[in-house]
Amino acid sequence: MTRSKALILFGLPLLLVAGYALFLLCLNQPGFSVSRVKNPDAYLLNIRRMNGTDQHSLALRQGDCLQIRFETEKGSLTMEITGPDGSEVYSGNGRETTDFTVTVPESGLYTITVSARQAQGSISVLAPGGKE
């Protein structure tokens, strides 16, 4: 076998695999293309493209009701709300239910964590008195 044929037979597949690996690596890089509002009484995300995680905390009182609008249009988008003691108050992906409320069981600081992979969608979490 000539040297040029060997280079084509072995080099081309290696080059294709390396290119594909680079493409996947770039595709899954953390990145945000979002408009985001983080207020003491609201957390709003309008996601055009998001890879990674974002957080916001709200100081709430026992019995406060969070108004939530959560819609995943593309990719994987999840939201988790944890209470002051670390317990999970809500966890979901915005596919089944898009408009709902969550009543907090105790006073304290609640953390909202949004995780995304190639996601597009929107999230609105409003505490009492919060506005979009």
Element order, helices and strands?
A: HEEEEEE
User: pLDDT under 50 segments (min length 5)?
Assistant: 21-29
Instruction: Give me the count of strands.
Output: 6
**Sheet with the most strands, sense and barrel status:** 6 strands, antiparallel
Tally of individual helices:
1
Per DSSP, what share of the residues sits in E-state strands of 2 or more residues? over 45%
Global morphology: elongated
The helix content, as a percent range, equals 10-25%
Structural class from helices and strands? alpha+beta
What does this structure look like?
- The protein is an alpha+beta fold.
- It is 19% helix and 57% strand.
- The chain has one helix and six strands, in the order H-E-E-E-E-E-E.
- It has one helix at residues 3-27, and strands spanning 31-39, 42-60, 65-82, 88-92, 99-103, 108-126.
- Strands 1, 2, 3, 4, 5 and 6 form a six-stranded antiparallel beta sheet that branches.
- It is elongated, with a radius of gyration of 21 Å.
